[in-house]
Structure formats: structure tokens, C-alpha cells
Here is the input.
Amino acid sequence: MLKRDISTTNLLIATAGSMIGSAWLFTPYIGAQIAGPNALISWIIAAIFMLFIALPLCELGAMLPLSGGMSNYPTITHGKEVGFLFSWVAWLSYVVMTPIEIQAILQYGSHFFPWLLVKEATYFKLSHLGYVAAVVIMFGVVLFNTYGIKFLAECSKYASLVKFVLPSVAIVSLMHTAPSVENIHFHLSTSENWMQVFSALSAGGIAFAFTGFQNGLILAGEVKNPQKNLPIAMLGAVLIGFILYFMLQLSFLVAVPKIYLEHGWQQLTFPGDSGPLVGLALVLGLGVIAIVLLFDAVFSPFGTTLVYTAATSRILYGMALNNYLPPFFLKLNRHKIPYVTLYTNFLVGTLSFLPFPGWQKMVAFLASASILSYGIGPICLLALRRLRFERFRPFRLVGSLTVCHIAFYICNLMLYWCGFTVIWKLYVAVAVGLAFYWTYHQRHNRCPNSYSLYWFFSYLTLLLIFSYLGPFGGIGFLKFPLDMLFIFPMSYFMLYLSQRCLISDTEKQKSFVLVIKQLQE
Here is the structure.
């Protein structure tokens, strides 16, 4: 039984703090390269999108505060097969977050220890000694997580406070050195401008920067008074993250010297841009600020790894509770921590550096997996309004039908903007997950909920086709912005079909027996 030890303040700070990891060190630079000053529009759109996505999750999390969060809901509504696939996608999007943050630590740390990295043509990768250092850091994070969720939340709280302070110092310093705001010129008159805005949002790491607001949902089984605290933590984290990231993007844009903009924002480069914020601070003569940023470039990602390592272990724990994995993964230590899942994710994380040798190579795929998992919210909220309409909802979303359709459409748009080269990899990853599930459960001779599986893969296949036909990495048959209009009826139809293939009454009773048992524990 997991202990409910996380308070309102700790949950809000930990959730917001988990959003301030390596993304703030890279996304202002990448966003500027893709969209220039229009990247500010990308941040505004992303924040609005995330609020719509968070609202259905708030009702679900307050109604069913389960450890593992989103990994439980599809099982309750659509059966074990689709539940496993959504859990698989959520786990994929989390299990390599710790390697991403550690990659950022070592990439910035290479300013002091250049032997940590090897420079390739277009990216940095870890050297052999850098890989050893990454494994040691990751193991230390796992040890921190084995000493109890209350201890972790306290550590994360103080780490998060520092993570908010130092980027704020960078914002003030960069704004102070900027002679004017002449660099800020919005160009939104052409289709190309808007494509850059949306590309920066999805492929440029801006959507990735908001990844983490749902960590409060995953830790829901260990939260005091989850009915009140979960909505505060999730919505508050989105707003706090938006304010910090928006101001950081603005300060970066105004502080770039004009000499580096002679060939436009798309060709932006300057000395030391492998660590762009530190490099810009040095170009501007802010030596002390550069040292502070170097410190935070190590500290912020480390604080984020603490939260993500805990959250990822709870996803596997939730999968084991739903019988996707052997009961072995349910073992707890004396601090009531699922230690087996911690060490399993550690082993997978150490291997993640091999196919994704650099920070930028991980981000686009992770963003797509995260966005796909966000679709759980509107799908499962509407389903539970039908399956369990009598259940008490401490946080009841007003206008849920409209909000859910908007949220699902938003998820599909952001997935589409990730581009075909990312979507097809996500499709393959989901297919591999299904093959793994069927192989593991073959001895049980279980009959799958075929309608739900047909719906799920029809949905992904349509997304893949639209992505291939579109201008975001595809052949460009569909022209922008008309392509966005085609996504809308597809989203509406797929959300409608998702409500036509819910689990049977027998399965419904079995799934809720498990849910009630978790809540009573």
C-alpha cells in the first residue's frame, strides 16, 4: 500500500518544478531558430492547448486518484489491450526523460569537463567516460527515490525553488543588457510563418517543455486530499511554466546581438551555442551570469530527474496492478516504494543513450508519445460519464463534451505538426508494444477486445496517412492551412467511435473492483 504523504504545496512545486528541466536550456534557442520572434506566439498557443488538455485530466484524477495515473483509465473504459497500449506509450514518453535530463547535465558540464562529450557533425554524444558518468548519476537518482515519497517531495520542493530563481535571474540579466526590443518583429502574414509557429510548438520542443504537468496525476495515489490538490497542481503548473518560459524566450530574443542576425533567425549561431544560454551570456560579457547558468544547467535537470524517476516507476507499478506485468513489479520496500520498477527503469534508461545519442534526437519522439498519451483525458472522461455516471466527482468539468472535443482535436493537431518522420516511428513503437503484450499473455488464451484495438489502430493509421500527405515532413499533397480542417472531422469521428467500443458489463465490473481496491488501500 502506497502512503499518502504529498501535501498541496509539495505537489504544486514538484509538478511545476518537473517542467523546468533541460527544456529551458535549449527551447528558447531552438524556437528562435525555427520561428524567430513568432516563437512567442507558439508559447501562448501551447499554454492554451495544455490548459484544455489538463481540464479532463483534472476530473479523472480527482475522481480516481490512482498511483500510475493515466495508465489506469483506458483499462477501465476500453479493456486491457487498449489500456496496455496507452500505458506503453505513456511509459515510453517517461522512461527516457531521465536520460534526456542527464544528457543535458553532461552537455553543459562539458564546459568544465570536455572529455564527457564527442562532437559529431550536427550533434553532441556521450563519450565512453561520459556514458559511465551518466550511469552513475542515474543510479544516484534511483537511490534517492528508494527512501520514500515524502523525502523525495521535500528534496524536490527545495530543488524546484532554486530552479525557479536562477532562470529568473537569467531573464532579468538578459533583459537588462538588451538595448531595445528592435529584434521583436512579428511576421504572421504568410502560411510559411504559421507553419514555423506550429513546427516550433511541436517539433521545436515547446510542447515538450510542458511535459510534466501531469506528474501530479501519476503520483495521485500518494497525495493528501487529491480531490482538491490535483486540479490546483496541474493547472497551476501549466500557468507557472508558461510565465517562466515565455519570459525566458522574450529575454533571449531581445538579447541576441544584431551581428548574429545578418542571415536571419533560421541561420542563428554564435560562439558556445552548444549551451545556448551560457554561450549568449558570454557573448554579452555576463561572465558571472554564465557561471550561475552553468550551475543551474546541472541543477535543474537533476531536480527534474528526481520527479520523473518516481513518476516512471509508478507507471510500471500501475501496469502491474492491471496485470499487464508480473506481480513481481508490485514489490515495495520498507518505505512503501515500488523499488523493482525503479531498478527496471534504470536498466532501460541506461540503454536509451544508444539509439538516442543526443538531447535533440530524443525530444521530438518524446513529444509525440506524450501528446498521444494526453488523448487519454477526453476519451476516458466521456467514457466514464457513460459507464460510471453515478460516481461522485469532486471536480466536475463544466461543458465536458465541448472541452473534450477541443482537447482531442488539439492533441491530433500537435501530433500532426510533429511531422511524418516522427509519427511513423511512434506507430512502429506502438506496434512493438502490442506484439510484446500478445507474446506475454498468449499462455492465458485471453480474447482481446477487438473493437477497441481496431479503433485504436485505425486512429493511428489515419494520423499516419494525414501526416504523410501533409506539408510537415510529408509529400505536401495537403496544403496548409486546409490540412488543419481535414484533421477536425477525423478527430470528431475517432472520438465518437471511441465511445462505441467500450468494455462489456462483465469487464466493467472486474476493472472497477480493482480500482476500488486501490482507492481503499
In short: The longest strand covers residues 117-119. The chain has a mean pLDDT of 78.
